[in-house]
Specification:
Layout: H1 16-31, H2 46-56, E1 68-73, H3 76-97, H4 100-106, H5 117-120, E2 123-130, H6 146-163, E3 167-171, H7 177-183, E4 189-198, H8 216-219
Antiparallel strand pairs: 1-2, 2-4, 3-4
Helix pairs in contact: 2-6
């Protein structure tokens, strides 16, 4: 490898038996994660959200440019504005923008244009992918593997929030340009998704279809 400044790799080694146990325990906890569409307005400490975003910020990424920004929305006025804009896009989606095949695929999940959770949940995390900026965020330096990097960070964010006992939902209205203006972000940032965070309301349910997961034999091959 080319010469570059380094520091010691600090991951402690653990016995195979413990490694297997840890992996299986985390697997079992993550298997309990479900997308929630019924949130309560019960407060969630800001410290939990901060810790989850800090965890997401450690995700592997292209050239260590860390091409992400997490705009956290909690004020009632901002949440109301976000909901209204998102529902306008969703009405267009369900009224003809989406193909019949797409709507048929969504039917078992029971989704529609109404998104009350965008206003009810205490926290909305709007995730932006930074196409430019570099580690100094100068708005000019080219970033690399942006979607891949931000996607990994979002997975780590959701896993951390789940570990903290919180429900989440990933919302992707299309188009999402209104999120940039609402959150006051620059043009070189692309809105990727809204992650809704909070506690589920009493009696919350999930679609039975969501319990159908592909088995290991279908999602992995060993070469």
């Amino acid at each position: 490898m080319r010469d570059h400044e380094t520091v010691p790799y600090s991951l402690p080694r653990i016995p195979d038996e413990e490694s297997i146990a840890r992996a299986q325990a985390l697997r079992d906890r993550l298997k309990q994660r479900r997308t929630c569409r019924y949130f309560s307005d019960e407060p969630v400490p800001r410290a939990v959200i901060e810790a989850a975003i800090e965890a997401a910020g450690t995700a592997p990424n292209g050239a260590n440019h860390q091409p992400w920004h997490f705009a956290v929305v909690s004020s009632p006025g901002k949440k109301r504005a976000l909901r209204e804009a998102a529902e306008e896009e969703e009405r267009n989606f369900y009224a003809g923008k989406a193909s019949e095949e797409w709507l048929e695929a969504l039917a078992p999940l029971g989704t529609d244009e109404d998104k009350p959770f965008l206003e009810t949940a205490p926290w909305l995390i709007v995730v932006f992918a930074q196409r430019k900026g570099g580690i100094e965020e100068d708005g000019k330096t080219q970033n690399y593997y942006v979607n891949e990097s931000v996607g990994i960070a979002c997975g780590m964010l959701i896993a951390t929030l789940h570990e903290a006992g919180l429900a989440t939902l990933t919302h992707t209205p299309s188009p999402m340009g209104f999120l940039r203006e609402l959150c006051g972000r620059p043009d070189y940032e692309k809105p990727l998704m809204v992650i809704v965070v909070g506690h589920p309301e009493e009696g919350a349910t999930v679609p039975a279809h969501a319990l159908k997961k592909k088995p290991l034999t279908q999602i992995a091959s060993w070469l």
